[in-house]
Amino acid sequence: MPPIILISGGYNDWRLPNFKELQALVDYSRYDPAIDTTQFPNTPSSWFWSGSPIASLAHYAWGVYFGYGYAGNFYRDGSSTFASSAADSLLILLIL
């Protein structure tokens, strides 16, 4: 199967942030959402996928909950509640 190419904002060279990059956006002095809302306005307090798989579980990936900054790992086949609820809330980084 060929890779899926997504275009966002006219760019097609973006990627999901890795777990460390995503977790670095958490501002633990804030909650609901736990992120700097000046830099990231309208960020929902929900789970966001990272591009980092779990080393020992290839079908799982790390995510961050921006309500309070929690981290967790979840099955990434789309069957979990996390996958369904997070599908509309992907946080991406544009690589320019």
Can you tag this structure with a few keywords?
about 100 residues; three-stranded antiparallel sheet; about 25% strand
Overview of the structural elements:
This protein is α+β, with helices and mostly antiparallel strands and about 100 residues long. It has 2 helices and 3 strands. The protein has one domain (about 20-85). It starts with 18 loop residues before the first helix and ends in a 10-residue tail after the last helix.
Topology readout:
Blueprint: H1 19-24, E1 47-54, E2 57-65, E3 70-75, H2 81-86
Antiparallel strand pairs: 1-2, 2-3
Q: Please outline the major beta sheet.
A: 3 strands, antiparallel
Arrangement of strands in the largest sheet = 1-2-3
Shape: globular
Give the helix tally: 2
Order of helices and strands: HEEEH
The number of domains: 1
Total strands? 3
How far is the N terminus from the C terminus?
Answer: 26 Å
Gyration radius from CA atoms, angstroms: 14 Å
